[in-house]
């Protein structure tokens, strides 16, 4: 496009252009950027620049590159023909200075996934399927997984194997489903074992390892695994609740809350997991087609207490009559008050 | 707000001006809170565009003429695990292949928001490696073919894997540590799985043509001298050894270590593997092919009906494939359809219901240069001057063009040159061009919109690269748009 035409159009769009001191990044921002990014940078048509990480890279060189070259796919103009180098430098520094102030933009409805810090709310929990950390879960929890092992390191160029060095295995949950209700509760359900693995309160996940925080190499890391941000309030242990190989059937949303459906042998189970009355407390509502009494081995630990609204708990085992086993609720309460 | 719309509109038209004449390219604006990392793309029967994103579930919008003003709505905000395949059954029912399973996503209460996520099939394992992507194509009978990618040594495997861990499958650069990595798996409408063919590496795209042939692309790397387009047939081995650890017949009667077996015996490897329908020369034609997408528009999108378009994740281009049957096998040629102006990252393609536009979903997912977004290519109705069809002859090629040829320039031998070479698929990553030879173009005969080139010395298992000079003109004076043609010869014309 003709450069002078472009510039005059932008001047028209930005309404008032006064002589700008190169050092005044805030004035450059107000004149050229605020029309799309909002006067305080919290986003309007363009994205919110006050998040801790921004879409096309959070470092000063990355920000400058975006300003200079634009992002045509997102209608962000290239400013290199319009602003001077000093102005670009100043406004990039201004963007850096407002990043992390976490203002809520006028158009920001629901979650924003532009940052690697997704968030749900009590009303609208967010669900993510991704590789999750094991948080020190004991091996016994992975009954229906196979055991990976280190194998000899391979050189594709020579087609030979290193006699000593190996490709190691790392901890991780391959079929995880993570859910967040805001700061009150997050949890990790496993679609392979079909059980609640762990829960926490506070911030949800840092997805930088998988989603990245900027351009280039920063957008992936070796493990591609989410990082849990809050302190765990519950980590499971012990054998599976129900006998038989679990088969994950999927999940349904009940008022936006996922209800997991699975089978263990002939037993059909649905499990709805919701926040309790205190931070980190987990309420697990089970519905089954049980036609005989069930004994459920409960996880044990000093860090949490498990109550059932049905049946009796004796020596860490919940005993349910057939009728009780068709509908029961377990409440897992952290013993120490979680922040 | 009018001012803002004006700015966006200006930029959209600035982009479209980059693409000349026959095809207009527009950038589609997506909601500001979404990263447009497109893994699945298509249309509902009602004409709504459906976009599956890596982080942000599934968006829908009825396309508007203004590319910046689509009325986006979220069908699902669940972040699926690397959704890479999609079938749109209706506005209420969508099938997605994601890392751990094939999922049926439904809106059962009619509020426009998905509320049921049914696990249709999860017969493949999950090792904990990011590279294991799954693309799908419907089988036309209520089931699907899913192309399951291998893992990469740039990522790990987990201590606890879903599915059986096989150490002999774990070794290698790209590898198959858990079941059916590197296989095309058929899943029937009941969810029963049958693996049909192994030997794939990173098949980021599977499609069916109007005759029912299944095609899958694959990506250059180990055991891939250059990126291929394969015709997928039951029981074939497509050349990447690791997946054969899941072939009981192979491990019982040939070797428990297929990787080592084929490293040690290249001759046997050449004999056992199924060759590509088309090989895409690495670098100057394609770096990372994605989904093949057949032109089913019957001419609404221009003169290429029945041909396959293929995106390049790591190049600013879209390819066009012309496939023919020669002596019982499918083979053919690739030319560029869009060469610059579309941006990199082209991952998924979908025709608009009226057939006039090709929607382009882009992503790079940590591979290649940052390139994400949604674009639209629209046929303007102005006929391009391009190669429309190529047919191998016993001693050359018959080229059919989209326009009548200019007798004088088309008759000049100097406007044609040819050479041939091959790529070595082996344990090393990629391959240089092997045995690059000039081929003589002995004569050219022009008839209307056809040129018959006589090129003696053609050989099978080689690529013939034809170069048509830009001084080759149509009768109306238009120079040839894309003169670089690469034909993969599997069989000579009898």
List keywords for this structure.
heterodimer; A: 339 residues; alpha+beta; six-stranded antiparallel sheet; five-stranded antiparallel sheet; 6 helices; globular; disordered N terminus; B: 494 residues; mainly beta; Neuraminidase; Immunoglobulin-like; 2 domains; eight-stranded antiparallel sheet; four-stranded antiparallel sheet; 9% helix
Structural overview:
Chain A has 339 residues and is α+β, with helices and mostly antiparallel strands. Chain A has six helices and 20 strands. Chain A has helices at 3-14, 25-37, 60-69, 85-98, 208-211, 322-325, and strands at 126-129, 146-147, 151-155, 160-167, 169-170, 176-180, 186-190, 195-200, 205-206, 227-228, 232-235, 246-254, 257-264, 267-275, 282-288, 294-297, 304-308, 312-314, 317-320, 327-334. In chain A, strands 12-13-14-15-20-17 form a six-stranded antiparallel sheet. Chain A has a five-stranded antiparallel sheet with strand order 1-6-7-8-11, with no helix packed on it. A three-stranded antiparallel sheet of chain A has the order 16-19-18. In chain A, strand 6 and strand 7 form a beta hairpin. In chain A, helix 2 crosses helix 4 and helix 3 packs across helix 4. The longest helix of chain A has 14 residues, at 85-98. Chain A is globular and about 75 Å long. Chain A starts with a helix and ends in a 5-residue tail after the last strand. The relative contact order of chain A is 0.10. Chain B is mainly beta and 494 residues long. Chain B has two domains: 18-379, 6 Propeller (Neuraminidase), CATH 2.120.10; 387-489, Immunoglobulin-like, CATH 2.60.40. Chain B contains six helices and 36 strands. Chain B has an eight-stranded antiparallel sheet, with no helix packed on it. In chain B, strands 1-28-27-26 form a four-stranded antiparallel sheet. Chain B is globular and about 65 Å long. Chain B starts with a helix and ends in a 5-residue tail after the last strand. The model of chain B is unreliable at 1-19 (pLDDT under 50). Chains A and B meet through helix 1, strand 1, strand 2, strand 3 and strand 5 of A and helix 1, strand 8, strand 9, strand 13 and strand 14 of B.
């Amino acid at each position: 496009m003709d450069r002078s035409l472009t510039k005059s159009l932008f001047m028209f769009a930005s309404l008032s252009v006064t002589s700008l001191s190169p050092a005044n990044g805030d004035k450059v921002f107000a004149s050229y950027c605020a029309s799309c990014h909002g006067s305080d940078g919290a986003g309007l048509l363009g994205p919110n620049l006050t998040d801790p990480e921004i879409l096309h890279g959070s470092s000063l060189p990355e920000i400058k590159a975006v300003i200079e070259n634009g992002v045509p796919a997102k209608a962000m103009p290239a400013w290199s023909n319009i602003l001077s180098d000093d102005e670009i430098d100043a406004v990039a520094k201004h963007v850096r200075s407002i990043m992390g102030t976490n203002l809520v933009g006028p158009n920001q409805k629901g979650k924003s996934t532009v940052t690697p810090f997704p968030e749900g709310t009590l009303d609208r929990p967010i669900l993510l399927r991704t590789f999750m950390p094991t948080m020190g879960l004991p091996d016994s929890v992975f009954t229906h997984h196979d055991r990976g092992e280190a194998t000899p390191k391979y050189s594709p160029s020579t087609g030979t194997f290193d006699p000593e060095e190996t490709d190691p295995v790392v901890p991780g949950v391959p079929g995880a489903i993570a859910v967040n209700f805001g700061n009150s509760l997050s949890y990790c359900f496993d679609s392979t074992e079909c059980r609640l693995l762990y829960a926490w309160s506070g911030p949800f996940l840092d997805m930088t390892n998988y989603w990245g925080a900027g351009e280039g190499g920063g957008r992936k890391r070796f493990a591609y695994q989410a990082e849990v941000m809050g302190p765990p309030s519950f980590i499971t242990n012990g054998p599976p609740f129900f006998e038989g190989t679990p088969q994950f059937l999927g999940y349904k949303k009940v008022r936006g809350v996922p209800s997991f459906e699975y089978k263990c042998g002939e037993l059909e189970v649905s499990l709805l997991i919701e926040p309790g009355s205190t931070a980190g407390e987990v309420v697990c509502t089970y519905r089954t087609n049980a036609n005989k009494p069930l004994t459920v081995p409960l996880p044990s630990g000093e860090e949490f207490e498990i109550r059932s609204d049905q049946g009796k708990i004796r020596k860490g085992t919940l005993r349910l009559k057939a009728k009780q086993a068709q509908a029961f609720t377990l409440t897992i309460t952290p013993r120490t008050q979680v922040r | 707000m009018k001012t803002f719309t004006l700015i966006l509109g200006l930029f959209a038209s600035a982009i479209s001006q980059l693409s000349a004449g026959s095809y207009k390219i527009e950038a589609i604006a997506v909601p500001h809170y979404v990263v447009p990392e497109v893994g699945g793309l298509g249309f509902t029967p009602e004409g709504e565009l459906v976009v599956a994103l890596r982080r942000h579930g599934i968006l829908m919008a009825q396309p508007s003429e203004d590319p910046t003003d689509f009325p986006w709505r979220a069908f699902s905000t669940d972040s699926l695990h690397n959704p890479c395949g999609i079938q749109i059954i209706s506005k209420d029912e969508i099938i997605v292949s994601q890392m751990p399973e094939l999922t049926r996503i439904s809106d059962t209460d009619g509020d426009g928001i998905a509320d049921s996520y049914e696990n249709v099939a999860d017969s493949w394992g999950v090792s904990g490696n990011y590279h294991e992507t799954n693309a799908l194509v419907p089988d036309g009978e209520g089931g699907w073919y899913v192309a399951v990618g291998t893992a990469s040594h740039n990522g790990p495997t987990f201590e606890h894997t879903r599915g059986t861990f096989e150490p002999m499958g774990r070794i290698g650069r790209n590898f198959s540590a858990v079941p059916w990595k590197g296989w095309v798996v058929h899943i029937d409408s009941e969810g029963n799985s049958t693996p049909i063919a192994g030997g794939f590496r990173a098949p980021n795209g599977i499609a069916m043509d109007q005759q029912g042939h299944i095609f899958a692309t694959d990506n250059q790397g180990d055991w891939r001298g250059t990126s291929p387009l394969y015709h997928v047939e039951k029981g074939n081995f497509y050349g990447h050894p690791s997946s054969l650890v899941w072939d009981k017949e192979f491990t019982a009667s040939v070797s428990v270590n297929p990787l080592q077996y084929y490293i040690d015996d290249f001759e046997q490897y050449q004999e056992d593997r199924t060759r590509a329908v088309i090989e895409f020369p690495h670098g100057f034609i394609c770096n990372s092919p994605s989904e093949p997408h057949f032109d089913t528009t019957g001419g609404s999108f221009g003169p290429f009906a029945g041909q396959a378009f293929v995106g390049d994740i790591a190049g600013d281009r879209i390819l066009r494939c012309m496939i023919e049957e020669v002596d019982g096998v499918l083979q053919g040629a690739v030319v560029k359809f869009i060469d610059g102006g579309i941006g990199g990252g082209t991952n998924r393609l979908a025709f608009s219901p009226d057939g006039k536009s090709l929607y382009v979903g882009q992503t790079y997912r940590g591979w290649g240069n940052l390139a994400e977004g949604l674009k639209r290519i629209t046929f303007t109705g102005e006929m391009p001057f391009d190669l429309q069809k190529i047919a191998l002859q016993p001693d050359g090629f018959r080229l059919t063009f989209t326009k009548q040829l200019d007798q004088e320039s088309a008759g000049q031998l100097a406007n044609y040159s040819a050479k041939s070479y091959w790529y070595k698929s082996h344990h090393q990553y990629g391959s240089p061009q092997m045995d690059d030879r000039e081929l003589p173009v002995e004569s050219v005969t022009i008839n209307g919109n056809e040129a018959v080139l006589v090129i003696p010395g053609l050989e099978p298992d080689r690529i013939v690269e034809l170069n048509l000079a830009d001084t080759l003109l149509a009768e109306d004076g238009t120079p040839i748009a894309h003169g670089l043609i690469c034909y993969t010869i599997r069989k000579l014309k009898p």
